[in-house]
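Lecture notes, unit on protein representations.

Consider one protein chain, 76 amino acids long.
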Amino acid sequence: MAHTLRTLLQRVEAWPQEARDELLRSITEIEKRYGNVYRATKDDHAALERSAQDVRKGRYATDQDIEETFGRFHRA
């Protein structure tokens, strides 16, 4: 695929300006949609699984726990 893409991009130079402008608009739109997509790592997946296990086992902070914790910082 990378070879095909490189070959096509080389041929773009011979296209009329209007066609190159259209390509630029298209790839700019694609970049907006897919360019900043975060890809989770194996470590991320492992952390999410540990978190899910904690929730299933009822190991999580209650609303009261959170309020007490934040309350300590707000008083400072």
